[in-house]
Amino acid sequence: MSQPTNAINTAEWVDQYADALYAFAVSRVDDSDLAKDFVQETFLAGIKAITNFEGKSSVKTWLISILKRKIIDYYRQKEARKTTPMSHFFREKGRVGHWVPESAPKGNYSEMEEALDNQELQTAITNCIGLLPGKWKGVVLDKLVEEKESEEVCKEHDITASNLWVIVHRAKLQLRECLEKKWFEV
Amino acid sequence: MSCEKTSFLVEKSELSKLSLKEKLSMRIHLLWCGLCKKYRSDSKMLGKILKALHKQDDSTLHAHVHLSATEKEALKQKLASS
Questions:
Q1: Closest residue in chain B to residue A179, using alpha carbons only
Q2: Is B79 close to A11, i.e. CB distance below 8 A?
Q3: DSSP letters along B20-68, please?
Q4: Does domain A86-184 have CATH number 1.10.10.10?
């Protein structure tokens, strides 16, 4: 059996797929150095696993799927740190379940109506999505950005409908506060 | 009802039908709670902002994003030596 690495021209891979992988990674992690590491790791993993590549999809799709898994693993490791506890938003003493004043909504989002197509707003919200825990992030992208059917989203992420409601609620609490900070407090 | 529960129902109502009891308790809370009203209006706009993101897919959103020739060269070398 020949060396699998002989079968592929790695330099050609870089020319053909590096930009697409990099753009994808940046859109998910919002950190260019980290994204570059992901691209390199994806190529290395691809070279190693080339014998498993069955040609059912294009090489690009196959490499992107390797990259996706790497990004998911990365967020899984960071998950705990990125979840804002509910006690940050809602009181646990006194008027239990009522807004903590510092984290309460200010109701100024209506001002953003004009800015919907604004590149800076889009970058800001992308950053905020990037700060969500990995699992929430996928749910937010599928349900709230791409507007897929709830049933499909639940199936894909292996969650129940009530899991979906809880995740959307918590993710939106976190996104609302994140974007408010990025947009109004500059 | 608490603001925590109300904000949850505000989100749930966007995803699914609320029961009559849920709908009533949410509406009553929203009548007197200014902060939850603000949450509801912010959340609606946040929803619009997220949907607007979809119109710009990854390729246009990050069309300006690419690796430099030097970076690609370094990457090629690294892969060749692996």
A1: B46
A2: yes
A3: HHHHHHHHHHHHH-HHHHHHHHHHHHHHHHHHHHHHS-HHHHTTT----
A4: yes
Predicted pLDDT at A152: 94
User: Taking 90 as the threshold, does the pLDDT of residue B57 lie above it?
Assistant: no
ipTM of predicted complex: 0.74
Q: Among B1, B4, B68, pick the best mutation site for testing chain A contact (most A Cβ within 10 A).
A: B4
Residue range A4-82 forms a domain whose CATH class is: mainly alpha
| Angle in degrees, 0-180, between the axes of helices A59-82 and A32-49, rounded to the nearest 10 | 130
pLDDT at B60: 47
Q: Give domain limits for chain A.
A: 4-82, 86-184
Span A5-15, pLDDT tens digits = 445 788 899 99
